[in-house]
Amino acid sequence: MLPLQTPQIVRIATRVSLVAALSVGIGGCHKKATPSLHTDVGQSTQTGSPSGAVNHPPERVIRARKKTESRWAAYANGGYGVSFRYPRIYAVKDEQLDGSDAHEAAIPPDAYEGQVLLARVEISADMYPQTDFEFAEFRVSANRYVTDNECREMVSPEENSKPVTKTVQGIVFSGSRHAIASADVETEWESYATYSNETCYQIDLVLTASPEGFQRKADLQKIWKRLDAIFRTVKIGPVKLEETVDEETAITAFTAAPFAINDVPNAYRISWDTRGASAKQIFLAARCSPEIAIFQINAEGSERASFPCGVLNSLDRLTGSITLEIENESDSTNLQELRLFAGGVHAVTGATAFAVPPLPAAEEHEGNTEDSRNGSILYADMAGVVQKPAI
After folding, report:
1. What residues contact 238, with CB distance under 8 A and at least 6 apart?
2. pTM here?
3. Rounded CA gap, 263 and 295, in Å?
4. Phi/psi zone of residue 377: left (φ > 0), alpha (ψ -120 to 50 degrees), beta?
5. 284 and 207: one domain?
6. Which DSSP string corresponds to 237-292?
7. Closest Cα to residue 185, out of 132, 126, 227?
8. For position 158, which CATH number holds?
9. Which residue range is the domain that position 139 belongs to?
């Protein structure tokens, strides 16, 4: 026998049913107004909620964005004020932490002395097995020992290259695009540069493929876009520069002349005069062919020390002179180039070039060392190159 339903029980049951119905109705409306994964989190969505209510984005959208963010890592170099982001799946090498030998060896041979490779991101062939893809790299380097003009010259277009410009985070990078193709290797690269913080920042993007022997082709355009995506995250912030003299930097004299000293062949006196810089900002660099060796000698020629080629040698003086002995082991005359750098508020450089004859034969060295110093020398100053007879 069913229990009697009193009017009070009927009223309670009716209220429960009404609440349940309202709950289902509200839940259905809320589900209908839920934005998709493609909806911008910051976009307002009309849900019919009361005025003043806050429509929070679904939690699943936030989780998806956090997952995406975690796929990228950050690199930052406080000393040079440069930073960028890159996918974690790629290998990044902080060249300054790996050691000086590594980053010095990776600098292009046509770069100016003082250029330092800061970091590089590598995409290896293992990520695209059994395809024509070989290698891709994003590279950042910096040089505090060049002028603004020299910075842009390093990446200026040459024959068979095209000019390129890119604005990243409000910074304008200019440079050139290159492509080289042969029967078994195809290489494309772009080199960009910008000048900030009295420093030249260079960005290189490189991609190499080897179609020979592979049936499958990798999506090289997609790989290039990944390099470009890293580039577009580059930021350059301010850095604390060394204290400089509050005067415009200038090189007022820079000369090289043959110097007769005892029995030392091919000795040259290098003289300079600068202003607007500190003594520790004056450097001299020599670009040498493999047959050239340079030594710094004293006034008597009795002591000498190696003067390395291709590096910045500190002079530690605003004005002065040094004597260099240049050994030319080849059979012909070589053109020797020297570059003087003076840092400061606006860095400047000067260059000089002169002809160095080959070392005399052993029998001639004892009989007549004077003849070995005859010939001509090229003096280069800020006005240009002028040929003068040797002294």
Report:
1. 81, 197
2. 0.68
3. 15
4. beta
5. no
6. ---PPPP--SS--EEEEEEEEE---TT-SSEEEEEEEEESS-GGGEEEEEE--TTE
7. 132
8. 3.40.1000
9. 72-236
